[in-house]
Amino acid sequence: MKKKYTVFVSSTFNDLIEERGLVLEGIIQADFIPVGMEYFAAATQEQFSIIKRMIDDSDFYVVIIGGRYGSINEETGLSYTEMEFNYAIERDIPVLVFAHEDILKLDKAKRDTGAKLEKLNEFRAKAMSRRLVKQWDTKDKLALNVIISLNNAKADCDRPGWVRGGGMDNTELLTQLNNVRAENEELRSKIQETQKVISEFEKVDTDLAFEDEKIVVKYASSYGYSSVEGFKRTTLKEIFAYISLRMLNVTLRESAIENAIFDFVGIGDKAGKALQDKQFMKLILNQFVALGLIKTNWDQGLWYGLTKKGIQMKNELNLIKKKTAV
Question: For the sheet containing 95-100, what is the strand order?
Fold first, then answer.
C-alpha cells in the first residue's frame, strides 16, 4: 500500500525565503507533502499551539539553520524555530538537521550579531549534537541534501504516512486541510482582536471614582504683588469630558493637560496660575490610566493620549445628541 509522508519544514523565514522555496518544491517533486510557516502569519504564542498539532501530524521534521536565530518568544526566551525543534524532539518525530557550513560567509543582512548570535550558536550546537547533520552552502545543495535525507529516512523509519482513500489524492486532501487550518487560525485571531476591542469599549469600572464622586480642584493665580486663591467642585467625569477634547488624535504632555485644567476652572488667562496640590495632576492622570481612558508613551519624555475606550467615552460625553420631542 503506497504511502505519502508529511514533512514539517522549520526555519527562520525572511533570510531563507529562496532556500525554503527550493526545498519545498523539491519535497513535492520527491512525492512528500510539505507543511510549514507559509500557512501562517508572523509567529505568535497562539499560533504555536496550531503549529504543534501540525508537527504531531507530520512524519518527519526538517530544520534549516542559516545565520539568524529568529523571533523570540517572550515567555520562553527561545526562538519559535528552536521551540519547534524542541517539540519535535519531545514528540519523537524523526528530526533532520541542515545547517549552513559557515555563517560568516553569508551576507551581513542574513546573519545575527551580539546576543542573538550567541543564542544561534547554542541552538546550532544542540541541533547538531548526536545526530546526522547535512551542511550546505548553496540553496541547490541544501535542496538536494533534504531530498536525499528524506528518502533515506523514509526507508529507515517506520512512519504512519498517509494512504490514498476514496477518489481524492491525499496530497490534495492534506493541502486543503492545511489551508483550512490556516483559515481557522486567521479567524481565531480576528475573534480575539474583536473581543479585545469590545472589552476596551466596556463601561468604566464603577469601583473607581469617575461619575458622581465630587473632588475639589484648588488653584491660585497671581499678578504682581497680589494673588488669588480659589477652588471648584467637580467630578473626574467632568474633567475628562473637557480635557479629552484637547487630545483628539494627539498626545499631550502633562503641562498641556494642566493648562486645560486651568481653562476648565476658569483661570486660563490669569498670570502665575498654579494648582495648590502639587500631586493633583499625577493623581487624576493615574486615575484615567487606571480606568483605561488614557494611555502613556515615552518619546524624550512622558506623553498621554486617549485609548479606544477613552475616545468612546469622549464621544459619549461631548457629542451633541438630538433631543426627543415630548
Answer: 33-36, 6-10, 60-65, 95-100, 133-136
Helix (H) or strand (E) holding 215: strand 214-223
Which residue bears the cell 521551540? 83
Domains of the chain from N-terminus onward = 3-195 (3.40.50.10140), 214-318 (1.10.10.10)
Beta strands at 214-223 and 226-235: parallel, antiparallel or unpaired: antiparallel
User: In this model, does residue 65 exceed pLDDT 80?
Assistant: yes
Confidence label for 206 from pLDDT (cuts 50, 70 and 90): very low
C-alpha to C-alpha distances, 133 to 78, 149, 173, 196, 270, nearest whole angstrom = 22, 10, 32, 45, 77
CB atoms within 10 A of CB 207: 6
Are 221 and 227 spatial neighbours (Cβ–Cβ below 8 Å)?
yes
